[in-house]
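Exercise 3.2. Students should predict the tertiary structure of the chain below and write it as structure tokens, then compare their answer with the key that follows.

Predict this chain's 3D structure.
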Amino acid sequence: YDEIKNYIEENHLVPGDKLPSEMKMCEMLGVSRNVLREAIKSLEITGTVSSTPGAGIVIQEFNINFFLRSLIYSVSDEKQLFKEIESLRRVLELGFAREAFDSITPKSLLLLAENVKNMEALFTEIKETHANVFGIKFAKSDAAFHKILFQSVENTMLKSIIEFFWACDKYYQIKTSHKNIAITVEKHVKILQALEEKNYEKYYEAMQFHFHSDYK
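Answer key:
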């Protein structure tokens, strides 16, 4: 696996280029075909290459979404997966708090306000109807809020990671009780108010409250 990656780097191969044939690679590396195929399979899992009969082994463009999806399969316990995602979200969103605050545009602020109003309205619907569909809509509005918050930050990888996190949590599997949803609404109201007041200290405190106020 490492030797093939080194070969790609040393020969300056780019997406679309092909590796030598299996027979040639086995001769170059001094390994059996089975060993080579296991290494190629590992490279396919990480999205480095694709291997198709008749087409050969082709170098792929780096795709962070492919890479992140492959990481999911390394965590077999779903609860542990959500716990780890929440921990990573906290580090990233607090770490980029200043950039998010500085890059908020008037249009983004209006969109954030719309999502907060939508969450408040959906919370009322959830309490009155107990319908799961409103919980899913609430989760989507929550996700949209955070995506808007970071959409003007000049870091494509950050936005891809945030998108990935929410794709894993789109059904709102943890924050289901009325009390927990009420806390979620309060968290986003605090963030919005701080942004509207253009108060970074208050904004950072609101973000801290968002990630350190536990659900029951």
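Discussion points: The first strand starts at residue 49 and ends at 52. DSSP finds eleven helices and two strands in the chain.
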